[in-house]
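ARCHIVE RECORD
Type: protein–small molecule complex
Small molecule: adenosine-5'-diphosphate
Source of inputs: curated submission
Record status: active
Notes field left blank by submitter.
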Amino acid sequence: GRCIGVFTSGGDSQGMNSAVRAVVRMGSYLGCKTYYIREGYQGMVDGGDHIVEATWASSSGIMQLGGTVIGSARCKEFRTLEGRLQAAENLIHRRITNLVVIGGDGSLTGANIFRQEWASLIQQLLDQGRISKEEFKDCEYLNIVGMVGSIDNDFCGTDMTIGTDTALHRIMESVDTISTTASSHQRAFVLEVMGRHCGYLALVGALATEADWVFIPEWPPEDGWEDTLCKKLQAERETGQRLNVILVAEGSIDRHGQPITASQVQNLITSRLKYDTRVTVLGHVQRGGSPSAFDRILGARMGAEAVLALMDATPDTPACVISLDGNQAVRVPLMECVERTQQVQKAMDQKNFEEAVRLRGKS
Ligand code: ADP
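STRUCTURE (tokenized, with ligand):
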């Protein structure tokens, strides 16, 4: 059978474990040997007991857990040729020529570079006597399939990334919890949520919690927003509403490119309206806790599809990512999605919001 290596890389997100489990189980079902590569690319470079054979039993009882049980790390060495040579050597000694990478756009880019270089890497390893002729022949091609784990839903080419839905649940639960106390004391609450380039969590979180106002990076409010915001909050209090909730995405800015922060909004409300106003920065709470049903099933479906895609891969087909399109797990070209995602980030940096939103939509 073929050998598959599965690893998680970059930021962790809920649902990654479910994806890993599905890779192990679909691999096993198809007669493949599957390895966990612990701590992402760092484990691939370090080898040793960082690369261990997965079993049906060891992939049991993990889909309920948040984060990633096989670990994730950033790895400087993998950005260098020597690091990638070492990684290739470690894989070849175990005959691993199929990789499933679960991570963000950086991790997927690294995987694609690795695949493009593979022929040259294995030639160098052979020339340096680090692998045998037999190993060389067995490992001529490297197949790669990606899945996107990210709570921000900031990747082009998929409707949802693994972890987004759970992060939304954490935001919703936090607002619900805060609302009970805020209402008792007639307070205003300003919540900062993640999203430096992408306002998805703030926007959808606001819709799901009946927030009074939301700031997102893609839509800087018009000048004079301070007056409009205060008038709105006041009007709501006058109709008997006892609390106010305002969501601020991390990367929010005004029309002049100046950041809009939660504490700035707090100061505005306290000074103008004299409401008791509190700030909550959700931070890592959004990455925490157990994955939602949606993320467990999403990870499971994508993981299974990833293994099927590896089995279908040929030396000529470009690497793909498994994405959610409507309600289907489908294969889309990896580099096209990565490039479009990077273009969106560039457009956001240049404050070209219309272009960013256009690029993010389906092509
Ligand atoms: P994310 O995958 O969440 O975007 P990073 O951008 O930090 O996170 O990438 C995670 C890891 O992927 C890096 O630490 C590095 O090991 C590897 N990586 C990222 N970009 C490249 C690249 N251009 N070449 C080689 N490896 C890369």
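CURATOR ANNOTATION: The chain has a mean pLDDT of 96.
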